[in-house]
Amino acid sequence: MACKGLLLFLFFAQSSAAAYLELRNEIEHYSGHYHGESNTMPFLMFSFEPISDSPLWVEGFLSYNRRYGDSHRQNDFGRHDLYLGYPFDFGKLKLFPMAGFRYEDYRSHKKSTEYRFFPQFDYWLSDSTRIRMLGFVAPMNVKDLNRKPDPDFRFDNFDYYGDYRHELEFGLEHKLPSHNAFRVSFYSEVLKMGDVTGSSEKLRNEGQLRVIYMQQYEHYTFKPWVRVGLYRIKKNAIKQQKDEIRHRVGFDFINKFAENTEFISRFYFQQEDKQTWKGKYIDHKNRTFVRLGVRRYF
Questions:
Q1: Is 130 within a domain?
Q2: Which residues contact 33 (CB under 8 A, 6 or more apart)?
Q3: Are strands 281-297 and 158-175 parallel, antiparallel or unpaired?
Q4: What is d(CA 168, CA 192) in angstroms, rounded to the nearest whole number?
């Protein structure tokens, strides 16, 4: 699959007005007894405009997640994304919707397809201030272990389910006289899982306050940011719930070290509360995240 994606990119990039290819790796490290969930995820990313004199663009992601603490590798999975986007300019209102899919295939035979639509736009209130809408909504088709109570439970008993996910961010961005900028936004993430019974998670509803400062220099960009958890409610099928809120603080750093090449990086620390279904505090789940990559423009 990765070879096919790379060949597709190379074929269109030769005649594309704008294209890039990015190689990167992401590492998530968990501390304490959550260390077994630590993982690494290499990416191949690409984007190009397949039609000359048209702003239509294609972008895709090919990646593989490898969990360190899983000797049987049943939680390893491949991920493939492919999207089409087209911008529309209506003066102060700029639309840049995308549509496509994300497909995940686990070694345990679980599979998931998200049919994503990105209703994204900018609305300029002035030359320096805009309202931004980012993110996606996605009905999902999931092949998962049977979610119904089964006294003869087996790890090869799979069924198909219709789930739903969205990740949406709505905020205000302002450019400063120094050409730097900041954005304040509200982020909503919802995951609804169908046909869940018993004490298994059925609904996840999260809200965050996000603040980012974007500092531009001649050859590099520095973006410190913070994501403050407001709530992260999880509910099960027997109407129990818990609030496993999480907070993140980190920064993005981009360095243009050659004419058409950039170094891409992200670092952050996350703290997540863990609770029982009765809402009793257990402990903190701490994550350290590192992303390193190189992007080449064509």
A1: no
A2: none
A3: unpaired
A4: 15
Nearest to 117 by CA among 141, 136, 96, 94: 136
Region 115-119: mean pLDDT is 98
Does residue 65 lie within any of the structural domains? yes
Q: 284 is written with which tokens?
A: 């903190």
CA-to-CA distance for 5 and 9, rounded, in angstroms?
A: 6
pLDDT (average), residues 229-245: 96
**Which residues constitute the domain of residue 4?**
1-86
Q: Which two tokens stand for residue 144?
A: 């998962």
Residue among 106, 104, 87, 105 at smallest CA distance from 96: 87
Q: What length is written for the chain? A: 298
Strands (E), the chain: 19-30, 39-48, 57-67, 77-85, 88-90, 93-95, 98-106, 111-118, 121-124, 129-145, 158-175, 181-192, 201-216, 220-236, 241-243, 246-258, 261-275, 281-297
Mean pLDDT for the chain overall:
92
126: pLDDT strictly greater than 70: yes
Residue 20 within any structural domain of the chain: yes
In a domain? residue 28: yes
60, 81 Cβ separation under 8 angstroms: yes
Distance CA 111, CA 105 (A): 5
Residue with tokens 């491949």: 78
pTM: 0.90
Number of structural domains in the chain: 1
- DSSP summary character for residue 248: E
Q: 121, 224, 111, 234: which is closest to 168 by C-alpha?
A: 121
